[in-house]
Amino acid sequence: MLKIEKRPEPSRSMIYATPVLALLLTILTGIALFTFLGVDPLEALKNFFIVPINNPYGFTELLVKATPLVLCAIGLSVGFRANVWNIGAEGQLTMGAIVGGGVFIYLHDVDSVFLLPLMVIFGIIGGALWAAIPAFLKTRFNANEILTSLMLVYVAILVLSLLVHGPWRDPDGFNFPESRTFSESATMPILWEGTRLHFGSIIALLVVFGTWIMLSKTLIGFQIKVIGAAPKAGSYAGFSQKKIVWFCLLFGGAMAGLAGVAEVSGPVGQLLPSISPGYGFTAIIVAFLGRLHPIGIVFAGLLMALTYLGGETAQINLGLPVAVTGVFQGMVLFYLLACDVLVNYRFRFAQFGKAAS
């Protein structure tokens, strides 16, 4: 009979194999789902994973979608390594877009090469300050950062809605809830003419490289790993857990804020009541699918970006509901968490008599 036994130590091979296994199980479940919906599963999978990127424009759209996912996931992954559970990247992204976009709102008549860098800096600061709230509550009152960061998401979205419906509404926008359209000096440079691929993608790659250096070559990176793996050993070594909480939440908020200002100064081009289809939440899946490693997060971000594009393509070509995107993303996370059991446990076949004894 089949029994489960604990491994002597976590399996390194399974750490990297389980994301692939989770993806395969997601595809198999997707085939069953499409069959149940009365859609040819092979045609559905083709529309989901191949059609969106079968031309240069589609491939650049994949990079555009992956940019905010990678930026948010990089920030979250640093905290997750230290067991700091920032779930509010969506709100921090929104606040970064508000603060960074607000620079243009108040300087809309300024045409300067320094405008965009100033927006980026303020966007980073805005995201970090929003993450500072759960950091303060965690270190001062031991409040659960999962709840506080998550609740602040809805506050940030309501603040954005209030601004674009009120004082920041475009005076020439026919009363629509949107800000002024960003000028050329407040817009990310386009990398490929005729597409929406912008300089934010280059910034995301630089962030990935910088984070990898930080985690592998610096003292703060070592402290994050030690605090996450063995908090008591970290305390004995003199590492401050409160400082790590502050650093991880501020870093995560800063990266989400950067993603937010890159979105509004890039493909969105203005402040709207909704500037993200849930990048901050999907970034949680990206972080874990990429095994909290910067390089893995890049590939996981591309995969999750493909689910956004695939969902839109399947909706147009096959008439599938838009919710199919969320279903696929949810299945990836569900199977990833389920398959993670194999990292610490393994299945063995045992004779019935031995198992009973």
Account of the 3D structure:
With 357 residues, the protein is mostly helical. It has a domain at 68-191 and 201-272. It is built from 15 helices and 2 strands. It has a two-stranded antiparallel ribbon. Helix 1 (12-36) runs antiparallel to helix 13 and helix 5 (115-141) packs antiparallel against helix 6. The longest helix has 27 residues, at 115-141. It is globular. The two termini are 13 Å apart. The model has no long low-confidence stretch (mean pLDDT 93).
Features:
mainly alpha; two-stranded antiparallel sheet; 357 residues; single chain
Mean pLDDT: 93
Strand order of the largest sheet: 1-2
Beta fraction: under 5%
Report the order of strands and helices: EHHHHHHHHHHHHHHEH
Q: How would you summarize what this structure contains?
A:
The chain has helices spanning 12-36, 41-49, 56-81, 89-106, 115-141, 145-165, 200-217, 219-229, 231-236, 241-264, 279-289, 294-318, 324-339, 341-344, 352-356, and strands spanning 2-6, 345-349.
